[in-house]
């Protein structure tokens, strides 16, 4: 059985932290990080807001991302081996060698139709403006944030894309990014394990 999990939501919402814990706990689990599909910096346009448009779909090679996901769907064992993931039964689930899981993590997972349709379950982490801005200010990016980027581009794009997602009726499970890392992890892991048991 193949199962694809989305961990999406706001920048600095805790997506990567949650993903990194899940992939260690789930059997035969691979991961695709949307951040790995950013186009080169010289291909990122400057928008009307005066900032390079990093927080929009056009900044990402979404076709390549979907192709990567489809390669996993076609042959999860080969994909896992080529990405250094050992394919072995999970310790607690005797039938887990038959389960292959892909976790896809990113900030714009649910705004691109060819990708949306591939998920079995979609989680969406959200944190309020103040907390998101505080977390963002503590991060070091390869391309540092210019002054005013968060208020002038990042947060407005987040609100725009979240509204588009909600208006198009994408079915997501909302997660409160203010909960502790352990609470989020335990909640999501239990939910996934229950869903996998129901699929068997």
Question: Which terms summarize this structure?
Answer:
7 helices, alpha/beta, 5 strands, single chain, 200 residues, 41% helix, 14% strand, five-stranded parallel beta sheet
Order of helices and strands: EHEHHEHEHHEH
Biggest sheet architecture? 5 strands, parallel
Number of helices: 7
Which range best describes the helical content: under 10%, 10-25%, 25-40%, 40-55%, 55-70% or over 70%? 40-55%
Q: How many beta strands in the DSSP annotation?
A: 5
What is the strand arrangement across the widest sheet?
2-3-1-4-5
Class computed from helices, strands and strand pairing: alpha/beta
Q: Rough shape?
A: globular
The value of Rg in angstroms is 17 Å
What does this structure look like?
The chain has helices spanning 15-25, 62-74, 76-82, 113-116, 129-137, 149-167, 181-199, and strands at residues 2-9, 29-33, 100-105, 121-126, 173-176. By secondary structure, the protein is α/β, with parallel strands linked by helices. It has a 5-stranded parallel beta sheet, sandwiched between helices. α1 (15-25) crosses α7 and α2 packs across α3. The chain is globular, with a radius of gyration of 17 Å. The N and C termini lie close together (8 Å). Residues 90-95 have low confidence and may be disordered.
Give the topology:
Elements lengths: L1 E8 L5 H11 L3 E5 L28 H13 L1 H7 L17 E6 L7 H4 L4 E6 L2 H9 L11 H19 L5 E4 L4 H19 L1
Parallel strand pairs: 1-3, 1-4, 2-3, 4-5
């Amino acid at each position: 059985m193949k199962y694809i999990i989305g961990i999406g939501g706001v920048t600095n919402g805790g997506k990567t932290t949650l993903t990194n814990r899940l992939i260690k706990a789930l059997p035969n689990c691979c991961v695709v990080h949307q951040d790995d599909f950013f186009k080169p910096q010289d291909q990122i346009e400057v928008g009307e807001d005066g900032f390079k448009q990093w927080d929009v779909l056009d900044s990402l090679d979404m076709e390549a991302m979907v192709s990567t996901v489809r390669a996993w769907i076609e042959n999860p064992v080969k994909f896992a081996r080529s990405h250094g993931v050992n394919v072995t039964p999970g310790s607690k689930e005797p039938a887990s060698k038959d389960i292959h899981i892909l976790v896809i993590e990113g900030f714009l997972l649910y705004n691109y139709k060819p990708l949306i349709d591939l998920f079995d379950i979609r989680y969406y982490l959200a944190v309020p403006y103040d907390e998101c801005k505080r977390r963002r200010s503590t991060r070091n990016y390869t391309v540092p944030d210019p002054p005013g980027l968060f208020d002038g581009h990042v947060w407005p794009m987040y609100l725009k894309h979240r509204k588009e997602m909600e208006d198009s009726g994408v079915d997501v499970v909302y997660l409160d990014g203010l909960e502790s890392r352990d609470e989020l992890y335990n909640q999501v892991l239990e939910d996934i394990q229950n869903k996998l048991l129901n699929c068997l």
